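Exercise 7b. Backbone tokens:
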């Protein structure tokens, strides 16, 4: 056989070829598939094995949660729920100076418990939050950066598609991962709030309750604060109940995380069709089309990543690379630091799903060898990958926000810098204090 680079093991050649294809702007899924097929050809395996391996990689019950959570988030984003939620939190916070920054952060975190997908969250709630924050005196780029970062935390805050995939790869309880990610997700949101006093919101743009209602008109004028709050809560009640239904059902044992995805979809249809009357055939078709396209992209990466992972396993790259990591130092902190740096750099160039399928098979044996809690490690990895969603050159949230905010990608990236800094601090805190993310953990 012809070696791409003489003297290198086939598995290492495959990894190098993958990065070469990425540099040539070949889509991630096809870069994974082509490099894996090349390696199989080099090792003498018949290509008729490819289909079986791909089928085996995606026929996992837990992975059914991905398309249904995406569909549920898409439906909820098109049924007026996001607008109702933003309206409620605006009235709740009232005339707090710079209140739309707080509203934007809270809504992003809340929507993360509804959507589970960062880019979908930016598209669903970004336009309203960015407009409201700009009216409240915040720079447009900063507002877009806040939405980018808050939406990125969707892969941390349950129900998270990223945690579902991690649970499948690590063979760890997805329910425990969901429960353990709640506090770290909230903590990261609090870290975001630390940037608000430095955003230089204009004094003349300070929000008032009446002004907030002008930004999102509702028949609340002339009512006192409690009356306005009651009306806003009543209007948004079924939307606010979404994470309660999803997470409450999981933690009470009524259904599994995979079944919760289907429950979320049915609930979204019921809310849109019966509670709000916003569900139309045209809207349903658009939601199904968008969700199918998003699910296809994710599952295509999962399919080819499983093929890539099979070659990694056969070539024992896991053993050699994880052994090299363990040989770096006897200090666990140093090894964890190296893993986190690798994940951060990988997240700058690849989407979270790809990073997980490539890196986790190498890092998980190290975590097991060092007896790290796999639930804590999973939450830590998700926070790390969330940061990757807002880092150039491939931070996908940046591109979605650039489209939504109608700003150049460079300005969006600059607007995320304050959030990037506080997120890195938050990552360090979660790494240093595992107890923060061990709520409900039941496996080592």
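Sequence design result:
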């Amino acid at each position: 056989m012809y070696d791409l680079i003489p003297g290198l093991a086939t598995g290492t050649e495959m990894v190098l070829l993958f990065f070469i294809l990425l540099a040539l702007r070949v889509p991630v899924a096809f870069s994974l598939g082509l490099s894996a097929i090349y390696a199989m050809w080099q090792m003498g395996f018949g290509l008729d094995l490819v289909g079986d391996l791909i089928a085996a990689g995606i026929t996992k019950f837990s992975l059914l949660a991905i398309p249904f959570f995406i569909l549920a988030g898409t439906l909820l984003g098109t049924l007026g729920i996001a607008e109702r939620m933003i309206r409620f939190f605006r009235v709740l916070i009232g005339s707090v100076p710079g209140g739309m920054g707080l509203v934007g952060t809270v809504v992003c975190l809340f929507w993360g418990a509804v959507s589970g997908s960062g880019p979908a969250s930016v598209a669903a709630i970004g336009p309203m939050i960015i407009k409201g924050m700009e009216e409240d005196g915040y720079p447009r780029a900063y507002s877009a950066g806040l939405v980018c970062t808050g939406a990125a935390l969707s892969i941390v805050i349950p129900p998270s598609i990223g945690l579902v995939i991690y649970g499948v790869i690590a063979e760890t309880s997805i329910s425990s991962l969901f429960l353990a990610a709640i506090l770290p997700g909230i903590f990261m949101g609090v870290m975001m709030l630390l940037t608000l006093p430095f955003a230089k919101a204009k004094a003349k743009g300070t929000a008032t309750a009446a002004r907030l209602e002008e930004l999102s008109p509702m028949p609340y004028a002339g009512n006192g604060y409690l009356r306005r709050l009651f009306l806003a809560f009543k209007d948004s009640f079924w939307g606010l109940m979404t994470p309660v239904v999803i997470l409450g059902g999981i933690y009470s044992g009524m259904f599994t995380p995979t079944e919760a995805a289907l429950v979320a979809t049915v609930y979204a249809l019921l809310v849109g069709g019966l509670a709000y009357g916003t569900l139309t055939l045209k809207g349903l078709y658009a939601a199904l089309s968008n969700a199918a396209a998003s699910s296809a992209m994710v599952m295509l990466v999962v399919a080819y990543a499983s093929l890539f992972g099979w070659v990694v396993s056969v070539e024992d790259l896991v053993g050699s690379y994880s052994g090299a990591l363990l040989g770096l130092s006897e200090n666990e902190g140093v090894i964890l630091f190296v893993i986190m740096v690798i994940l951060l750099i990988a997240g700058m160039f690849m989407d979270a799903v790809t990073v997980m399928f490539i890196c986790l098979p190498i890092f998980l044996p190290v975590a097991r060898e060092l007896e790290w809690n796999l639930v804590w490690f999973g939450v830590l990895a998700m926070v790390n990958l969330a940061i990757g969603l807002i880092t150039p050159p491939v931070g996908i949230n940046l591109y979605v926000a650039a489209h939504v905010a109608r700003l150049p990608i460079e300005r969006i990236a600059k607007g995320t810098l304050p959030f990037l800094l506080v997120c890195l601090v938050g990552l360090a805190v979660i790494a240093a204090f595992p107890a923060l993310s061990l709520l409900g953990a039941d496996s080592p």
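Instructor comment: Residues 203-219 have pLDDT under 50 and may be disordered. Residues 281-314 form the longest helix (34 residues).
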